[in-house]
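yo

u said u wanted the structure for the complex thing, so here. seqs first:
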Amino acid sequence: MASFAIGVDLGGTNLRISAVDADGNLLEKLETGAQVSRGRDFVIQEMTEAIKSVSLRLRGKGDLAGVGIGVPGIIDQDTGMVRKSPNLPDWRDYPVKEEIERRLNAPVILENDANAAAVGEHWLGAARNVEDMCILTLGTGVGGGIVLHNQVWEGMTGMAGELGHITVHPDGPKCNCGNYGCVEQFASATAILRMAREAIATGNAKELSELSAGTGTFKNVEFTAKTIYNLALQGDEPSKTIFRKVGWALGIVLGDIVNAFNLQMYVLGGGVSNSWDAFAPAMFEEVRRRSMVYAATAPADVERAKGASAGVSYQPSPKSRQTIITRALLGGDGGLFGAARLPFLRARTITSQA
Amino acid sequence: MASFAIGVDLGGTNLRISAVDADGNLLEKLETGAQVSRGRDFVIQEMTEAIKSVSLRLRGKGDLAGVGIGVPGIIDQDTGMVRKSPNLPDWRDYPVKEEIERRLNAPVILENDANAAAVGEHWLGAARNVEDMCILTLGTGVGGGIVLHNQVWEGMTGMAGELGHITVHPDGPKCNCGNYGCVEQFASATAILRMAREAIATGNAKELSELSAGTGTFKNVEFTAKTIYNLALQGDEPSKTIFRKVGWALGIVLGDIVNAFNLQMYVLGGGVSNSWDAFAPAMFEEVRRRSMVYAATAPADVERAKGASAGVSYQPSPKSRQTIITRALLGGDGGLFGAARLPFLRARTITSQA
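structre next:
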């Protein structure tokens, strides 16, 4: 009998749940009102209730293959516990996997949310014909996920892929992770707000200052990375400078990753990736200048390069031997699809081992 | 019948050749007078002559399984050509593999020299019980090689593992690769000499100045990374500062690599790794401060940490789940053993595919 899996995205503020079949068809998607900030017990209760009701409704579609949960933090795969998660402090050292499995009577897989996004984009998104790829998720923070030979590269302790904490400038701003000058400090929504505040403090960023204060033409306009991007689109120089800095930092870290991994595709996801037009030119200039491996393998064809800038998804043949840097195709849903994919992958591994 | 393979190390100045059996026993090792600087045709002629005479002498030991050649440059595995090699300019776009195979009538495998060193250390050296590891070779330049699931990670076009060109400081000195502030610009023998010259130029480095000029107590002493290390050992502050900078840069790049790959072992090889005592304290301090993945997985045990500083090779159990940063065990011979290993690996792959 055909089956379906549930994917859960715990990222950011709300809890989102999807039901997906083995072919990647979305059967149901819901966003619960459950605010993650209300704490572990509340969220787990809401989550299990929602999953149970979805499963009931979908009974005709087959069995529940399992539940995949994307968590913004470092997961210990051996114990099924959250090892480190700045946004979910009370999830640490709590048997999340065990507890949810007990309540649902179904296999549960925890995964870092950016790893889940990598799985989603690799399964159904920009990298769907690519064996080796990675993703950088540009959100509140910057996450990373790496797929090698069609499998998530978990590393020795499941902590691999922390690409958001690669150093871009060793004397840069202090990061939550303890390091200084991580790419997260230049290319996250949080970093964009910080850079905007720095620009305002110079006294030379009138529009940003008004946006920040909600004055002038900006009454009722929120001060966010997105509205700063809108200012950049309108030609505001200080805002454009901020996104050039985003591109500069992404170009440096992509150069590092291209030099180390020499993958076929590098995908940029997360909310900030919607500002592609504002940061991509600086990013491509920087990565080409800094990575000899990129320079040797970048798409030569001008049309292709333009396509990349416009976020067009390539489906390069495995023999194309070109390095593609492009935008996520699934938008904010990559992690949700990827989380739902995990139980199917696990089942396949178990079958092939048996 | 048992067989043996030939490993060739084209690195640096001279040509070195080894004959090794499938168990890693060294049957013969020779260093030819053939200076690499005398050009491609001369070197290939000398190399094939030497390999032929070694093969003849070892006829009683079995068949020649093949020849592995470690080349300081980027290799195109599909064509068997050297794609980029600052030290071997006339090897570029020349059918090296084909030409040597024709002369020897034996399979030839080209490999980046640092990848060969990774294979050697993984086979017989510091990482011999480790599935996933990488090496940084600190020589004239800085090379890198990555082994994942016991195989060299070649990447899409065989250019992976260029860890020496990861950016440490985006505004650092210009590198031959086109980038600025690569780790090669801070942790190679060339970089140590540059930093020494910079220290001399300040007028506050008397010993280094005399060493550089060959005056005072330094008559007939060469001005090299090694003699600068000797000065550091004798307590010369400007020399110690240089090696702290080496450690700082290595700590930053190791932090990047640990965050991205989460491997079990990171090996430092090449001539500069002999200055371990002078750079390791700064390196460990920096990587612990900068990489949350390292901080979460570093050996807690003080004795282990001391062992690492002293270059003791661990043989951690696969379940130890600790991140080990240590020195190469095979010294300058890692690449020579690794190159000789390549024909055996290729044969195994072919057998298992058949």
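Chain B touches chain A through 49 residues (CB under 8 Å). Residues 237-261 of chain B form the longest helix (25 residues).
cya
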